[in-house]
Structures are given as structure tokens and as C-alpha cells.
Specification:
Blueprint (H helix, E strand, L loop, with lengths): L5 E3 L2 H5 L6 H5 L7 E2 L15 E3 L2 H10 L21 H20 L3 H17 L3 H5 L3 H10 L3 H21 L3 H24 L6 H8 L2 H11 L6 H16 L21 H20 L1
Parallel strand pairs: 1-3
Antiparallel strand pairs: 2-3
Helix pairs in contact: 3-4, 3-9, 4-5, 4-9, 5-7, 7-8, 8-9, 9-10, 9-11, 9-13, 11-12, 12-13
Length: 289
């Protein structure tokens, strides 16, 4: 089954992440993509297929269920934001910070998640996204619900923020910035997972493979948008580098990835280590600015 081009939106999170149930947990990793009603999105189409890529919160949730323990040192320091000068680098690192916020929130690191919300707001403001962060008193609601320990409400607030961001960028005809933000969040979450793998946790491998398998779809969207920002070709090159190590994994050779059960697949340790090293190198380049 051919994988379709993806669109970037928070709608999947609205539909499922904030209301994860025992049934959704049993669904395993295969729920990372979902078809959506075109009335709720502005899709990128290939042969009529419309699908949504998981939000950064959704990806973090998938990894959390797969054994993503909290390693605070894997977070991108908020002090690094002063090094981000171009809109492209700011957008990438807004994605990084949003992923770190989700990572902290899912691990009940509320104070840290609040700090990363503020950091995201600061860098988002530099990208013209103030209205998204100020909509519906998001910051005040976040702090109030954090103090009350209301996890479901916090997840809902983050989904509101992601949706507001998508709306603002669509209205300004800057959908390519959404793609860049997502790429930063995607790489950052894979980086966190790679650090967990490097710490000796083998159970995270299927989730890493599941998410890296989306690279072709992300690249397809970026190829369509590479004329919108001079930095996008560099990002494409970085993702192609990750893709090369993914394609070199022997357990995936000549397999239908849509049908393969990664949780029942035996992977070569050296190949996974090389893939994780490539992810780590790509992420470290991003956060350096």
C-alpha cells in the first residue's frame, strides 16, 4: 500500500491523544497515522489520499507508551534561543521546544513544561505567532490546570495551541513554516528516544522505526515547499541522511512496511545504533542554530 503525502495539523491530537484509552493503547504503534475528513483540514493530496501526521504531542504519547523514560539532559536548553537568528532556524527550534514541552508534560514535569511553553511563546512571537499563544488565555489556563494537576485539561490546552498555530500560519499563507516546525519536533522526539535507546532500553526500538518510517512523507512535502525558504534544502539533506541509515536496516529489506509488525521484528544492534547516531547528529546541528 503506497503511503500518501501528509498534511500538518493538530486535528489527530484533538481526536485521540487527549483522550487515550485502554483500547487506543492496545492499538499499538499503528495508530500514528489517521485519515481525516477534508472538511476539517486543508490537505496536501496525492492520488486523492488525505492523511494527517501526528502532532508533536501525539508522537511523544506514542513513545511514552513504548518506554520513553524521562532524561532531563536530553532537553534543548532554553538559553540556546538567543542563538537562533533566522526564521528558518527559529521555526525548527520552535518545533524542538514544543516537543520538549510535550515530553515534560507527559512525564508530569509540570514546572519544566511551563518553562518550555514560555520559551515556545517567546520564539513563536518572533515568528508572528503571538495571536496563537494569546488566544483563549492559553498561558493562564495552562498554569491554573498545572497547579490543579489536571492532565487531561493540560493536553487539551496544548492541542488548542497547536491548532491556533496552524490557523495563523494558514491565514498568512505560511504553511511551509508549519512543516518546518513539525520537522523540528519530529527530530527532537526521535532524539529523546535515541538517547533512551543509547541508555540501554531496547523496547523503544519499534517506536523509533515506526516514526522514522514517516521520513519519505515528510520529504515529499518539503520538496514541494523548498522554494519558500532557503533553509529547507538543508533540512531535506539532513532528513535524506537519516533516510539512508533507515533504508540500510537489514530487517526492513524487501518488506512491506505498512504490514510489518516492528514489535515482532529483530533488528541488528549496530544498524539501530548508526541510525540513532545520525538522528542525534541532525538534532544537535539544529539546536546549535
Amino acid at each position: 500500500m503506497k503511503k500518501p503525502i501528509l498534511i500538518f495539523t493538530a486535528m489527530l491530537f484533538l481526536a485521540s491523544c487527549g483522550n487515550d484509552s485502554a483500547d487506543s493503547d492496545k492499538a499499538g504503534l499503528s495508530d500514528s497515522l489517521a485519515t481525516v475528513n477534508t472538511e476539517t483540514t486543508t490537505p496536501v493530496e496525492e492520488d486523492g489520499d488525505d492523511v494527517v501526521l501526528p502532532s508533536s504531542m501525539r508522537i511523544a504519547s506514542i513513545f511514552k507508551r513504548s518506554g520513553l523514560k524521562f532524561i532531563e539532559s536530553s532537553l534543548n536548553s532554553l538559553d540556546n534561543s538567543k542563538n537562533y537568528k533566522t526564521s528558518f532556524v527559529k521555526a525548527l527550534n520552535l518545533g524542538v521546544y514544543s516537543a520538549d514541552m510535550a515530553y515534560c508534560l507527559l512525564n508530569k514535569q509540570y514546572a519544566l513544561s511551563k518553562n518550555y511553553l514560555k520559551g515556545s511563546k517567546d520564539i513563536g512571537g518572533e515568528l508572528g505567532l503571538n495571536s496563537a499563544f494569546e488566544a483563549n488565555n492559553l498561558a493562564k489556563r495552562f498554569e491554573s490546570n498545572m497547579n490543579a494537576g489536571k492532565d487531561d485539561s493540560l493536553l487539551s490546552i496544548i492541542s488548542d495551541l497547536q491548532l491556533e498555530t496552524d490557523v495563523v500560519l494558514e491565514k498568512s499563507n505560511n504553511q511551509h513554516i508549519s512543516t518546518i516546525i513539525f520537522a523540528g519536533a519530529w527530530i527532537e522526539t526521535l532524539y529523546s528516544a535515541s538517547q533512551v535507546y543509547k541508555s540501554g532500553e531496547q523496547s523503544i526500538i519499534p517506536a523509533i522505526i515506526e516514526q522514522v518510517s514517516l521520513v519519505d512523507n515528510i520529504l515529499a512535502v518539503l520538496e514541494k515547499q523548498k522554494g519558500n525558504d532557503a533553509g529547507i534544502p538543508t533540512l531535506i539533506a539532513s532528513l535524506n541522511s537519516i533516510k539512508a541509515d533507515f533504508n540500510a536496516i537489514s530487517a526492513l529489506k524487501d518488506k512491506d512496511l505498512d504490514e510489518l509488525d516492528y514489535t515482532k521484528t529483530t533488528f541488528n544492534k549496530d544498524e539501530i545504533t548508526r541510525l540513532c547516531d545520525k538522528i542525534i547528529a541532525s538534532r544537535n546541528t539544529i539546536v546549535k542554530g
